[in-house]
From TrEMBL:
This is Uncharacterized protein. GO terms for cellular component: nucleus; plasma membrane. One of its GO terms (molecular function) is ubiquitin protein ligase activity. GO terms for biological process: axon guidance; regulation of synaptic assembly at neuromuscular junction.
Amino acid sequence: FLFFKATGKAVVEETSKLAECIGKTRTLLRKILSEGVDHCMVKLDNDPQGYLSQPLSLLEAVLQECHNTFTACFHSFYPTPALQWACLCDLLNCLDQDIQEANFKTSSSRLLAAVMSALCHTSVKLTSIFPIAYDGEVLLRSIVK
């Protein structure tokens, strides 16, 4: 929480730093959740004691924590229904491009799972995010400008 100081300048500075930190955190979490897992890490043959699978389980724990953090902070990353809709449209567009280009080095399925999990939260009103007569392309163009 931000506490108002005697001068407005300190509040503005703190608010802009907070917004910058939120943006950097969102970018980092999106990147982590969008990266694919190297296939050589997934297939672990001849490991009866589980020594080789320990790094994989640590990776899964980190990815799960990133998922939980992204889901919990989604309302801060995308505070309005329009931004939440734009996030989902942008993500689905990126997934579509990856499929068309057969680019499977990045896998946004974890990020999509986190976004969908956040959208399923009880505080989210899906009718305000997914209106029937809503043109996502117009919104995306207006945000980019």
